[in-house]
Amino acid sequence: MTAFNDLPDAPRAERRPTTDTRHGVTRTDDYAWLRTANWQEMFKRPETLEPEIRQHLEAENAYQRAALADTTVLRDQLFKEMKARIKEDDSSVPSPDGPFAYGTEFVTGGEQPRYFREARDGSGREIILDGDAEAAGRDYFRLAGSSHSPDHSRTIWGYDDKGSEFYTVKVRDLASGQDLEDIVENTGGGGTWCADGSGFFYTRLDENHRPSKIFFHRLGTSVTEDRLIYEETDTGFFMGVGGSRLDDFIFIDIHDHETSEFRLLPASNPFAEPKLVAPRETGIEYDLTEGGDVFFILTNADGAEDFKIVEAPVDQPERANWRDVVAHKPGRLILAHMAFSRFLVWLERENSLPRIIVRDRETSEEHAIAFDEEAYSLGLQGSLEYDTDVIRFSYSSMTTPSQLYDYDMRTRERTLLKTQEVPSGHNPDDYVTRRVMAPASDGETVPVSLIYHKNTPLDGSAPCLLYGYGSYGITIPASFNTNCLSLVDRGFVYAIAHIRGGKDKGFGWYDKGRREHKLNTFTDFIAAADHLVAEGFTSHSKIVAQGGSAGGMLMGAVVNMAPEKFGGIIAAVPFVDVLNTMLDDTLPLTPPEWPEWGNPIASKDAYDLIASYAPYENVTATTYPPIFAIAGLTDPRVTYWEPAKWVARIRETMTGGGPILFKTNMDAGHAGASGRFQRLEEIAHEYAFALKVVGKAA
């Protein structure tokens, strides 16, 4: 394997012990000083970062550059390969809505999307918003999308130019192409039009980056005159605003990770008082879609762990009037639903595979849209229009490029609209995709999706990139990924471990991977690694584990628990300082995260539980494999100081191994670089590390 030779001395963060006592337990944190005191201001003005912290982060960046300097040519080669698999002048298939169809496109060499619309009478295409033009001269730029008004005369668009996810919202007149003087700052991104297009609803973020207020802005008036529609005073809840497909209702969605509440007001009357649908009840979730004179509601009420669909009259949507339409079926998880004038549609997952179900609203006859591959991904896009028989969905597998279909729900005819192009070429027959089941220690089996080249030997000699997430019920789909082919073509087995904490095998799979069951997430991932070795796909020294955000926490936990079972670790924006973050209720996501992890402020049991696995708290005096940690300076979700502290503690504590590398993107936040090719450069950086670790960097 390729060694990391002749490295300069790694940066050493000064130890400045601070103590904290909770529930009678005193902990010492040597690196708490890396948390900038002015983080609220720094997210908006990165230049205000404390100089000594900036100096340390820059030293870390210099060290990782030196450690990976011999991969410069490889990184460039990887970047060129991945870029060559992207159709540079790609365009989406426009989605019909009234007299127009709306879509996005890229131009050759462009980093940002352009939003366009086409007249359905065939009279031509016009550019609504040019992302490259708007991004010019900015180090970071991310669009929040474009939302056209009901009369198609204007569009709301938003952008973040710091990476901190404080979005500025503007309104563009589509006839002139000019922005109006209506500018709203510090929003969650985007807005929802009222019925007559005279104004829009938006979410404003407070100084702690929490979406605490919904406002209505009347075009042509000062933002200071905006009407407060609703304020959420419980810091434990997220909040957003959206509209119905019929443009009849405005939905205010209030939720945490296990409880939800909706409030409604007519889109035609932005001065109405929001009407409560069903009051929040801990553990009860529900989601609304409009179906003419009824709402169809997806919910886990009444013990429906894997969710059911009910309906209620639009004028009496209270829970007392909910009537079952699609009954709960244990093991069949309903993920999303949509309603149209003649059909009800939902996306479900059973036996770890997704399918789309279409029900005729008049006859109640149902049929399914499904595929035969061993592992695949389905996406339900639906339609912007309500009175239609045609919906849109996407399909892909780990070997099959994405395909976009229009589907006539009445005739059941599929029309292939687009197949993802791979300009440099792709032959699915060159690859094998499989799903294997890894036995967990408690008798469960963990699905693992695999792709590898047909010529890759399965005798334990192949390297493997093993990806995992395992939190918040998020399922990682077995979808087509052109980037990973750069590893697969070099002999890697690319694997996704569908561990507990996601909803891959139903809601219970999620429930058994959170709070008091969180350890299952980590042991499942280790079990997946063990199974891949036992079945000859790879060997432990050649497994590079990868995860980001909560998946980065997974990386920190498994490398503490079983460092000998991984040849390397890639931890992107890793949530590794879990205990300290969950003890700090001023941070943006802390109160809303308590249902997922537990509240260590209020509960000693939760404190002890989190302390038992939090990666930062459990760094041990052992040999660690090479680790590559990545952060974004203005990331409000996983703050830069979490991996900065974690890396410092590992270096101070480890007895051998490494190196421990840490890169901070000084111009980005949680999602990394904002441009599509800039993002490929970051992936190339991570892949070069993986190749170097397993001796394939030459």
UniProtKB/TrEMBL annotation:
The keyword Hydrolase applies. Residues 9-24 have a biased composition (Basic and acidic residues). Residues 1-24 are annotated as: Disordered. It comes from the Bacteria. GO terms for molecular function: serine-type endopeptidase activity. Pfam families: Peptidase_S9, Peptidase_S9_N. Residues 479-696 form the Peptidase S9 prolyl oligopeptidase catalytic domain. Residues 11-419 form the Peptidase S9A N-terminal domain. Keywords: Hydrolase, Protease, Serine protease. One of its GO terms (biological process) is proteolysis. Belongs to the peptidase S9A family. This is S9 family peptidase.
